[in-house]
From TrEMBL:
InterPro entries: Acyl_transf_3_dom, Acyltransferase_3. GO terms for biological process: polysaccharide biosynthetic process. It comes from Rhodococcoides trifolii. GO terms for molecular function: acyltransferase activity, transferring groups other than amino-acyl groups. It comes from the Bacteria. This is Acyltransferase 3 domain-containing protein.
Amino acid sequence: MSNSSVTAAPQSRMQALDGLRGFATILVLLGHGAASMGWPVLAGAPFFQGYRALVIFFALSGFLITSLMVRELNKTGRIALGAFYYRRAMRLIPAFAVFLVVVAILAANVSFISVSLRQWLSAALFINNYVSGPANAWWVGHSWSLAIEVQFLLIWPLILYFFGPKIALRVAAVVIVLGPIVRIGQYLLFESLRGNITVTFHTRVDSFLIGGAFALLLNDKRFRDQLVKWCLRLAIPATVFITLIEPYVAGIFKLHYYFPIGYTLDGVASGIIIVACLNGSKWVIKFFSFRAFTFVGINSYSTYLFQQLFINHFGPPPWNNAILGIALSVLAGFLGYQLIEKPFLKFSTRKKATNQSPPPLPGPAVPGDKTADVSDQTVTK
C-alpha cells in the first residue's frame, strides 16, 4: 500500500492537487464570465454553474489543514496553535489586504465601482457571509468564502487541540450528517434567509469537515488501508461525476439538489479524488496535472480575489469583455502570487527554519497557494 501521508506524497501527486484547485478556479472564472458578459446560453449551461467549485476548495482545505495538524500532533505530541494561526495569517491576509486597498482606491475614484463602508468592513473583518448577504456589493461579495474559511480556522483547530483526532472525527461526522438537515430546515422555516444558505458558515462548514474526515481516516491505522483501497477504486467514477455528471444533475434540480445532497456528494467526490491523487491513481493524477490546471491552481488565491475586478457579475465595465476579463484575472493571479504571496511565504519559511516550527499550512479554500512542494508550504480552497 502506498504511503498516504500528505508530506510524503511525490511531487506529481501534490501537483495533481494544485490541478484540482486550478480546475475549480477555472470553473469560477467561466461561470462568472458566462453569467456577466452577455453569454446567456453559456450562463444557463450546466457546466458553467460554479457551485461545485467552492465545495472542491472547501474539502481540499479541510483535508490538508487537518492532515498537517495531525502530522504535527503525531510528530511532536502537540499542536502549536500560536504558530498555526501565524502561518494562516501569513497565507490569507497579505493578498487580501492588497485587494481591499485596491478596491477602496477604485471605489473612491471610479464611477462604476460602488462599495459602501459597511460592505468593505464586513469583508475586511471576515463576516461578509453574515453581514452583507449574497446580493450585496459584487466587488467584495466573493469574500463570503474567505469568511467561512476563517471561521472554520477559528473553531476546527481548537477541537483538534483540546479533544484530539478521535473526538474531532466524531464531531465531523455529526456535522456532516446535520449539514443537509440544517440547510433544508433553514429553507423551509426561514423563507427570508433562503438566499443566505449558500454563503453562511453553519450551512456550508460540512464541506470543510468532509475533507477533514477523509484526512482523519487516512491518518488512522484502523481505516487507512480500506479508505485508500476504495478511493482508488472510485477515483475515476468520482472524477467523471464531478466534472461531467454533477453539473447536469445540478442544472436540472439546481439548489433543490445542492441543499439536501449535492454539497455532500460533491464533498465526498472531492475527498475520494484527493486521497486517490495522494496514493497513485494514475489516470486521475494525469488528468488533474494538466498544465493549465496546475498553473491556475498555483496562482488560484490571487486569481480568485482579483477576478472580481475584471469580471463584473452585474454588468461589465466599459473596458471589459468576457475573454479579456478572464485573461486579466489569470494575469492578476500570477502577479499576486509572485509579488505578494510568494514573498510572504518565503518570510514565513525562514521564520519556520529559525523556530523549527512545522511547515506553513496550505493556502485558503478560496483558492490559494502552491501545493506541489509540501516540504515548505503545502491545500486546500
